[in-house]
């Protein structure tokens, strides 16, 4: 007889099944458990204090204050237990407090918290670079540079591409999201809330048509012709970099038509433009492969990671062709906190969990349970215009059936109903009319399914109300 020992984390009651591998770290709950209205009294009190202390510019999706969280579960300060279908925007992919992350980071915090890698070196920085060089797509000699945030990785990719090519311009696509710093805000497409009142923006950012299967009406070939027209109009020799997301995140989880990204890579190669793949949201297992690029058979000259890389500790990376990465002069790259040792230890724990095949198998199981529930809803309810995505990065879009006029009000109403029912969902999209699901990759498929059942009930309720 096999006796399986289950270790419980004291704070949330989540379980780790050692026999089942590093990937299996799970919330103990099987359904939301609400003991007060949402938000509860303690959260409301703290939120009132927040309003007095914190700048209004920070929006809030769900104004509950968190007490603890694990692999798919969030417990608030009123004792409500939510199913987490957001992962803090694709960050806590291995859960919010995976025991391997906790162990490595705890050990490191007692050894040293910081040296600044540009002052004195430490081993974990090198180990993170080695893993990324070995696993990021591309059969070529690579180098990695570590930073702290996604926007910083994007900005540094542009610096590196300019240094390598001696050219100024950056080409990005419609509906792109690359961050909130001044340069990356210019690269981001969506005006509100990201860009409103924050201009003027850095120049040399040029935008080209995206192949949005639902809305642009362009297939891969037609969209590629448009991109090439824009490149020619500005002069191909003026572009340092072409930056793309393999599935657009904030743009609405837009999955490109087959061949579009390969065509873009080929265009970039033909014109000597550095092809930068922004895998900040899609990377590290999110889409069911280690990198979303693998679904498309592409490899960026530079590939960007952040979000899930540090399991919540801030770390980002640019990984790419050695000759491009090393074009920058010594001293040209860095940052006080770049590749902080606590974050590097967290990343090494994330790699151990991703190295366990059980993790990506679990992502496939999550994809199945979500699509099995959402596809029938799309067939049945006219206001559901599309169900799309890959792995644990899935979305449902709401629009008027014939005109495809976006229905952001419906998406918001459904999302808020999920929150009141104990399920944390996020909206997204250029028009705000998409609900996106980003559960932790390690969440039990049954738990994700229970969350999606609440979502489906909310969609039915909202659409019958609208029809009545
Ligand atoms: C989140 C995100 C960024 C920016 O990352 P930050 O850590 O918020 O600066 C850039 N690109 C993509 C695709 C993202 O999803």
UniProtKB/TrEMBL annotation:
Annotated keywords: Aminotransferase, Pyridoxal phosphate, Transferase
Catalytic activity: 4-aminobutanoate + 2-oxoglutarate = succinate semialdehyde + L-glutamate; (S)-3-amino-2-methylpropanoate + 2-oxoglutarate = 2-methyl-3-oxopropanoate + L-glutamate
PROSITE patterns for this protein: AA_TRANSFER_CLASS_3
Cofactor: pyridoxal 5'-phosphate
Pathway: Amino-acid degradation; 4-aminobutanoate degradation
Superkingdom of origin: Bacteria
GO MF entries: (S)-3-amino-2-methylpropionate transaminase activity; 4-aminobutyrate:2-oxoglutarate transaminase activity; identical protein binding; pyridoxal phosphate binding
Major enzyme class: transferase
InterPro entries assigned: Aminotrans_3 (IPR005814), Aminotrans_3_PPA_site (IPR049704), Class-III_PLP-dep_AT (IPR050103), PyrdxlP-dep_Trfase (IPR015424), PyrdxlP-dep_Trfase_major (IPR015421), PyrdxlP-dep_Trfase_small (IPR015422)
EC annotation from Swiss-Prot or TrEMBL: 2.6.1.19, 2.6.1.22
Family stated for the protein in its record: Belongs to the class-III pyridoxal-phosphate-dependent aminotransferase family.
Full protein name: (S)-3-amino-2-methylpropionate transaminase
Source organism phylogeny: Bacteria, Bacillati, Actinomycetota, Actinomycetes, Jiangellales
């Amino acid at each position: 007889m096999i006796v399986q020992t289950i270790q419980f984390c004291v704070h949330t009651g989540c379980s780790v099944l050692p026999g089942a591998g590093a990937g299996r770290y799970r919330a103990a709950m099987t359904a939301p458990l609400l003991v007060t209205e949402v938000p509860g009294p303690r959260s409301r009190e703290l939120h009132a204090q927040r309003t007095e202390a914190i700048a209004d510019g920070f929006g809030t999706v769900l104004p509950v204050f968190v007490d603890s969280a694990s692999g798919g579960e969030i417990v608030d300060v009123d004792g409500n237990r939510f199913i987490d279908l957001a992962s803090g925007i694709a960050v806590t992919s291995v859960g919010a407090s995976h025991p391997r992350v906790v162990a490595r980071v705890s050990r490191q915090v007692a050894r040293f918290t910081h040296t600044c890698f540009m002052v004195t070196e430490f081993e974990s920085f090198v180990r993170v670079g080695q893993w990324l060089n070995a696993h990021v797509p591309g059969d070529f000699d690579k180098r990695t540079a570590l930073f702290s945030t996604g926007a910083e990785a994007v900005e540094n990719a542009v610096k590196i591409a300019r240094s390598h090519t001696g050219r100024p311009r950056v080409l990005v696509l419609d509906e792109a999201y690359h961050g909130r710093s001044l340069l990356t805000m210019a690269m981001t497409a969506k005006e509100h809330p990201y860009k409103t009142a924050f201009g003027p923006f850095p120049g040399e950012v040029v935008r080209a048509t995206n192949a949005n299967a639902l809305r642009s009406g362009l297939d891969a070939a037609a969209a590629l012709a448009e991109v090439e027209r824009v490149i020619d109009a500005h002069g191909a020799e003026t572009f340092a970099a072409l930056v793309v997301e393999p599935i657009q995140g904030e743009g609405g989880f837009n999955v490109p038509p087959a061949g579009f990204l390969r065509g873009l890579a080929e265009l970039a190669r033909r014109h000597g433009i550095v092809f930068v793949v922004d895998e900040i949201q899609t990377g590290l297992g999110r889409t069911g492969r280690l990198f979303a690029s693998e679904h498309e058979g592409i490899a960026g000259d530079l590939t960007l990671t952040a979000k899930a890389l540090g399991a919540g500790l801030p770390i980002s990376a640019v990984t790419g062709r050695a000759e491009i990465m090393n074009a920058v002069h010594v001293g040209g790259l860095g940052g006080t906190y770049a590749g902080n040792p606590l974050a590097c230890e967290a990343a090494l724990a994330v790699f151990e969990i991703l190295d366990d095949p059980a993790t990506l198998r679990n992502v496939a199981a999550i994809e199945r349970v979500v699509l099995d529930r959402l596809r029938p809803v799309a067939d049945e309810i006219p206001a559901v215009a599309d169900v799309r995505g890959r792995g644990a990065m899935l979305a449902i879009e709401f629009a008027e059936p014939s005109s495809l006029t976006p229905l952001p009000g419906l998406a918001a109403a459904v999302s808020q109903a999920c929150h009141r029912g104990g399920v944390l969902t996020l909206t997204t999209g250029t028009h705000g009319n998409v609900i996106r699901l980003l559960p932790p990759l390690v969440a039990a498929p049954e738990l994700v399914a229970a969350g999606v059942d609440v979502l489906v009930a909310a969609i039915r309720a909202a659409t019958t109300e609208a029809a009545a």
